[in-house]
Every structure is written in structure tokens, then in C-alpha cells.
What does this fold into?
Amino acid sequence: MGAGTFSQIYIQVVFAVKGRNCLILPSWEDELYKYITGIVQNKNQKMLAINGVHDHIHFLIGMKPSCCLSDLVREIKKSSNKFINEKRFIKYKFEWQEGYGAFSYSHSALDNVIAYIQRQKEHHKKLSFREEYVLFMKKFNVDFKEDYLFKWIEY
It folds into this structure.
């Protein structure tokens, strides 16, 4: 990116554990979030917030236009998957679900999005991941059919 190129791109990414299994445990989730933050930083992007619950995670990044989001998410999922399995945080083979959600925000919305991500555990006492995801799709006017939307989430 040359001189005189300026950008403000903020993306919230959401993805789930394969089968929406409740495998992310409080005992090691901070280590996972630090690891994912390291991947984002090594790719020269800025982690603004990361959190989740037992079956999915959210993170908000400040992204440079030179970054390819799908490559970044693929790397995060592949590397963190390997990290979790090598550390043997769980007895079973850990895998992330295929697919992810990515939602863009203006600079003025960042404080609210960061607060939303930080309150994930409290938030999900009232709302399932499925309900939350459908709300995101509707809020962002993403055209979807619910039957197809959750093909990547096995029930």
C-alpha cells in the first residue's frame, strides 16, 4: 500500500465449533484467544476484541485493505485447530465448523461492538448461537434462507 492510502475497515468475525459442540472451556479459552490474537498481529492486522462461549467465538479486527479476509480466517481456524489439538485441551479431536460470518462496522460503532463481544457469556444466557446468528443476518440485511444458513451448523 503506497503513501496517501488510508482506510478504516472494521470486521467482526464469528465462527463455531464443529457440530456446535460445547468444547471451548473456561480453563483454556484465554490461551486460545491470545493465540488467535497472535495470528492476527503476525498478519499485520489489529485485534480490537475477542471472546466467545463454549460453542463459538467472536472477534473484531481493524483490517488493512491488503488483507484477504478469507485467507486470514482460514489461517486462524487451521492454526488454532492445530494448537488446541497439540495442547490436548480436550480428549477428543477438536475442529471448527466450516464457514463463518463477517460483519463490517463504522468507526463510531466500535465501542458498542467491543462491549457486545466482551459480554458474550452474559449475552448467551438469554440467546442461543443460532438465534444470535439469525439476528446478525437480519440486522445486516444479508439475504439468506434459514434452511441453508444452518447447513454448516449440524443439529
Summary: The chain has six helices and four strands. The radius of gyration is 16 Å. Strands lie at 10-16, 46-53, 56-62, 101-105. Residues 10-152 form a domain with the Alpha-Beta Plaits fold (CATH 3.30.70.1290).
